[in-house]
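[recover] target loaded
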């Protein structure tokens, strides 16, 4: 079998998912790994029997054996590494967010065009089983026209610290880290309408609350609490060309009685709650019905979704499939995310008329 030879750039927390799931895919051979923390890369290389280890991304990209890469580094490297990888003739799976600014996103899009290579943005939730189950209902018109979506991803304690809370390296806080997933999922289910305006607010009122005792939370590989210049809460109202709207709020920390993950879309014939559990709301014979699909899992299964994402990327690189999360969607997402930050800074709505 002709195997896809893959290199992984960045060997921190999320690289473990990429490595595990590439290792599960019989069409893939892991051939290279890179991290500026060489010891971390070597540890992973030993675990997954990866022959080539680098501390400098340019050396990995110069290895002609490598056909495709996963980019699992900090957000401030995504654009530069994506462009360099594409220009070196590699297919690219880039972790979310695509990058930090719209200008960078357009440069990556241009690099994808000139290279002709596969580029997949790591919008992993698109590849979730419940997402694809719901798509069957939406694609066959069961929900009618979706005109409203709502997403909340609220952590009461969960600023991962390290680079995540350093704006220069991350580009922002919960909006760019968590909001990107839930906004994208709603937008994907809504049929990716063109954005016309964004009104947002960001707050940095509580700090990272590293002082809190007795509650554990996710921390970056190089956790460091002292540097925190990102927002701790963001909310936004996004309007689309077809009149549809999306409301979202996300936090790294908030005085709230519990964490919340809720995602729903609402159409003219039916609606759906995607999280915390897939359910479909509709009307029949003058009765309102809640339909509960019968499946092993009705919430997003992170590992299974990730496996689908990796398999889909592999299939696309081998010419069998087309990615579900192309660079153009990453560009639109950067427009939305950056507009939330801009709107919050200016205290006014951002409009995209004619853009
Ligand atoms: N899809 C998801 O659900 C998901 C989940 C977590 C993280 N992510 C994304 O994955 C990326 C990495 O996140 P993480 O949690 O693994 O962070 P991490 O800090 O655990 O790992 C990042 C690694 O990148 C390395 N690195 C940074 N800059 C480098 C450079 N210039 N050259 C070589 N190596 C470099 C660091 O040394 C570190 O080992 C981020 O973009 C994040 O948004 C996605």
């Amino acid at each position: 079998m002709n195997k896809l030879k893959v290199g992984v750039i960045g060997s921190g927390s999320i690289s473990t998912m990429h490595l595990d799931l590439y290792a599960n895919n019989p069409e893939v051979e892991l051939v290279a790994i890179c991290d500026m923390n060489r010891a971390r890369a070597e540890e992973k290389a030993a675990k997954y029997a990866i022959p080539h280890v680098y501390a400098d991304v340019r050396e990995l990209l110069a290895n002609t054996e490598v056909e495709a890469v996963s980019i699992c580094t900090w957000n401030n490297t995504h654009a530069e590494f994506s462009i360099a990888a594409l220009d070196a003739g590699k297919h690219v799976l880039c972790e979310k967010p695509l990058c930090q600014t719209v200008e960078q996103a357009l440069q990556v899009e241009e690099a994808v065009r000139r290279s002709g290579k596969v580029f997949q943005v790591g919008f992993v939730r698109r590849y979730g089983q419940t997402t694809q189950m719901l798509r069957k209902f939406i694609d066959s018109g069961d929900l009618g026209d979706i005109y409203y979506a709502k997403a909340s991803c609220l952590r009461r304690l969960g600023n991962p610290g390290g680079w995540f809370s350093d704006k220069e390296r991350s580009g922002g806080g919960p909006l760019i880290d968590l909001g990107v997933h839930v906004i994208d999922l709603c937008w994907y289910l809504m049929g990716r309408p063109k954005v016309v305006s964004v009104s947002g607010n960001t707050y940095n009122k509580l700090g990272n609350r590293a002082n809190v005792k007795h509650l554990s939370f996710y921390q970056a590989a190089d956790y460091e609490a002292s540097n925190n210049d990102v927002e701790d809460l963001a909310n936004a109202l996004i309007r689309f060309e077809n009149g549809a709207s999306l409301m979202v709020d996300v936090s790294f920390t908030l005085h709230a009685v519990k964490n919340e993950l809720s995602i729903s879309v609402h159409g003219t014939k039916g609606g759906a709650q995607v999280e915390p559990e897939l359910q479909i709301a509709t009307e029949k014979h003058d009765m309102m019905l809640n339909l509960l699909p019968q499946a092993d899992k009705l919430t997003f299964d992170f590992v299974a979704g990730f496996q689908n994402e990796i398999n889909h990327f592999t299939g696309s690189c081998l010419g069998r499939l087309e990615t579900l999360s192309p660079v153009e969607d990453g560009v639109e997402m950067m427009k939305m995310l950056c507009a939330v930050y801009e709107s919050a800074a200016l205290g006014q709505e951002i409009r995209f008329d004619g853009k």
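[recover] notes: The chain is about 35% helix and 25% strand.
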